[in-house]
Each structure stands twice: as structure tokens, then as C-alpha cells.
Design a protein that fits this description.
By secondary structure, the protein is α+β, with helices and mostly antiparallel strands. Helices cover 14% and strands 34% of the residues. The strands form two sheets. Strands 1, 3, 4, 6, 9, 10, 11 and 13 form an eight-stranded antiparallel β-sheet that branches. Strands 2-5-12-7-8 form a five-stranded antiparallel β-sheet. Strand 3 and strand 4 form a beta hairpin. The relative contact order is 0.24.
Length: 236
């Protein structure tokens, strides 16, 4: 019982802290780190293929660069691009699973700089990586390319490891569009109907900011995903 109370208290403290921080950011009109308009024809590479310059890690585990690829160790944690928010842009992520199926995610619309592993899960949007969620008792709302637990697949085009996969994620105001290996799998706008939360590890429902931090997840020691490219370009 003491342990259960401690968990509830921890979640309450996290919720209250994040709510206060988000409220203060919006109250101050904080946009100074927002992704600015630029060349809409050229991709800007956030990962230089050599090290994690410009990136920070929040939560458990850690990330390294091995043979030009980002990979996670332990978990659960998030490697995020620090000091800048992104919106009204396209994001390209090229990844592969170590095993036939591995679990990870690409995070967008994180409202404030994450300070622990659950904050981006609850308050951002996770573009899921998991080709077989049913194996762990979850549903197709948790399939690769979905906004985790919010959207249902328009198509299932995830390739098993060790084949390469490419996400192209469009953030257009409150609308999020995801292409996986060239086919549209998600098209969601804040306010669209979504299912109720089934598990307490699913994100809280509600709107997300147009601009937010982005990152990639290390899910656990048994779920290794390699990231070869993370790139962005403005929509306009």
C-alpha cells in the first residue's frame, strides 16, 4: 500500500510540475527557441553521424553512436534535440530494429524541455515504433507510425529488422501526418476523436503545442533500435 501511494504521489507531482511549467511558458509567450522559417527544399541534418553534439538525454539509460548510428542502452529514456523547438516542418527519421521487432519511438510536440522519461510520454506525441504490439497485449493503436494510443493505422508498412525504415512526419499547425516507407499511415489533427486511455502508461489526452521539442527513445535493453538519420526542413 505504501508503494502504491508513492506511485500515485509521484504521478501527481509530475502532473502538477509539468502543468505549472507549461502554463508559465504559454503565459510568457515563449517562442524564442521555435523552429524558424528557412529553406524549404533542403533537409537540415540534426545528427552528424559522428557524435551527439546538440543532443541531451533525459531519464534512464543512455545513447551512444556506434559505426555512425545512434543506439540506446538500458532505459527507459529519451534523447532529444536541445535548445530548439520544431513545428510547421517535416521531420525525416531513418531507423532499423536490431531484432525482427523492437520497441522505440520518435517524439514530437514536447511542450517543455524534458526532465525525466515519462514527461514526454504523457505530454508529447510519440510516433510509435513496434510492428507487433499485440505480442505484449496491446492493440493496433500502438503499431509503428501511430501517434501512440491515439490513432489507428491507415496502413501497416513497417519493415522488420534489420531492414531500414523511413518516417516522414509532417507537423502542420495542430495536424500531424506520418508517412512510413512512402505510404501514409497516420493523419491526425488535435480534436479528432480518440479512444479513452486503457493503461496508465498511455499519454494524457488533450491538445499539444504547434511547436515542441523532438527526440528518439531508448525503450529498454532488449529493445534496441538504430537511428541513421534525423533531419528537418520547414514547410514554408
Amino acid at each position: 500500500m505504501t508503494h502504491a501511494i508513492s506511485i500515485r504521489q509521484s504521478k501527481f507531482i509530475l502532473c502538477l510540475t509539468v502543468t505549472l511549467l507549461i502554463s508559465s511558458q504559454f503565459a510568457l509567450g515563449v517562442t524564442r527557441n521555435s523552429f524558424q522559417e528557412g529553406d524549404t527544399t533542403q533537409w537540415r541534418q540534426l545528427f552528424n553521424g559522428k557524435d551527439l553534439t546538440g543532443w541531451k538525454h533525459a531519464g534512464q539509460g543512455f545513447m551512444t553512436v556506434e559505426e555512425g548510428l545512434i543506439r540506446g542502452h538500458g532505459g527507459m529514456g529519451l534523447l532529444y534535440w536541445a535548445g530548439e523547438k520544431f513545428g510547421n516542418c517535416k521531420i525525416r527519421v531513418v531507423y532499423k530494429m536490431e531484432k525482427t521487432n523492437s520497441n522505440s519511438g520518435v517524439f514530437v510536440r514536447i511542450p517543455i524541455e524534458p526532465f525525466e522519461e515519462w514527461m514526454p510520454v504523457f505530454y508529447g506525441h510519440e510516433i510509435q515504433i513496434d510492428n507487433d504490439p499485440e505480442a505484449s497485449g496491446e492493440t493496433e493503436y500502438h503499431y509503428t507510425g501511430m501517434i501512440y494510443s491515439l490513432t489507428k493505422p491507415l496502413a501497416k508498412t513497417g519493415k522488420p529488422g534489420p531492414q531500414w525504415n523511413t518516417f516522414e512526419i509532417t507537423l502542420d499547425g495542430p495536424r500531424t501526418i506520418v508517412y512510413l516507407n512512402g505510404e501514409k499511415v497516420t493523419d491526425y489533427t488535435d480534436g479528432d476523436p480518440v479512444p479513452s486511455r486503457t493503461w496508465d502508461f498511455e499519454p494524457f489526452r488533450g491538445p499539444r503545442p504547434d511547436y515542441g521539442y523532438i527526440g528518439v527513445q531508448n525503450h529498454g535493453e532488449e529493445d534496441v533500435v538504430y537511428f541513421k538519420e534525423v533531419a528537418v526542413k520547414p514547410l514554408r
